[in-house]
Give the backbone structure.
Amino acid sequence: MPTHISNQRTFDVRFPTSMHLDGSDAMNADPDYSAAYLRIETSDAALFGDAFVFTIGRGNEVQIEAIKILAEKIAGLEIEYAFENIGEIARELSSDSQLRWLGPDKGVFHMAAGAVLNALWDLFAKSRGMPLWKLLSSMTPEQLVATIDFRFISDALSPAEALEILQRGMADRAKNEKILLANGVPAYTTTPGWLGYSDEKMLKLSQEAKDAGFNLIKYKCGKSLADDTRRLTKIRELLGPDFPIAIDANQVWDVDVAIKWVNALAEFKLSWIEEPTHPDDVLGHSRIAREIAPTPVATGEMASSRIIFKQLLQSDAIKVMQIDATRVAGVNENIANILMAAKYGVPVCPHAGGVGLCEVVQHLAMFDAIAVTGHHNKRLVEFVDHLHEHFIEPTKILHGAYLPPQRPGASTQMIDASIAEYDFPNGNFWQTPVGKAHAIKSKMTSSHASDKNGALS
Ligand SMILES: [Mg+2]
């Protein structure tokens, strides 16, 4: 009998990362890295698909409610039917005539669509016994094009153009896969650069990152120009004049401020300024790009959809495109984003970090390297060394590169014991005095009743 989707379970998983200021930047002072986690179960007890939306704490319960509502739409589907019709499913998840009012194509429901789709992709890859990067780069150009919702982007990328880009890549797929297996894809790191770290800690971690072979280090900035200048001066002294460094303002500036601030740091030869202003302000990014040239602008971790990316590319606003695995509507929309970037000649340097984002997004970079733009040194995948131990297949980094995961699936699956420990508010950690005090201090709330099947053991 064909395998079908039989049940959905959700978990409100929160890690108390703000206790150590990991992840602190100019905008996000105290993130508690969290996952609005979905597991779709099937009629085969051994086969299930996992995915999550990354959040930074409060509101994780809202994200879960949206995921539950959208996951209902795939209840009962046969897995092979879902694979054959994944483009249609993606379109339907974004087309509910009432829910669409709460978007469209942005925010909690859009990310929830991403969770449902990513859980399905995890399921497809597991059911075929291959990692997601391998599944995607084994699909025909026609199959890949059929996954994409071209609504609102066809003026920038038509189905015929997408097909042509993928067909062009066919000849090199085997060669590119061999290179991937041998060398991985190049990574950069943000681990040393959090704003809450002392100069000593930042410099110590920077030296370690350079020694470990990372190709670029990124530093948070934007609270004080004097602080940024001091930090970058020390960093340049340590790393030398040519080691690639980038900075990230996490949207803290207005456009005029961004232009002045970044120009004041021009002497540090920055590889890019990331998120200089609000992610929806496409025209603002475009003006910043013109007025701070040659320093390149990067953005994308909060670009809510392919439509924002389309405009950023059309208006020459970015030189680096930073897709995120859980911000948009899943693998499908990111295939569209990667193909648009290829058409416009902009490298995709995926955003990662948080909890699990490195694990998930590496598959998309590897697909890009095999089937779209090939191997080149402009694609650097972000790496942050937090919370990998909670996944059944943590990222593997060697000599500053991500090595391809081997286990079947999308690397989305968390260890059951970690889910049980950090499930909010009933998990073991959150029931300790320290956990309870942290939740009160952080004003965390949850409307998320324990899953109907009870917590994982
Ligand atoms: Mg960033």
Summary: The chain has 18 helices and twelve strands. The chain has a mean pLDDT of 95. Residues 107-127 form the longest helix (21 residues).
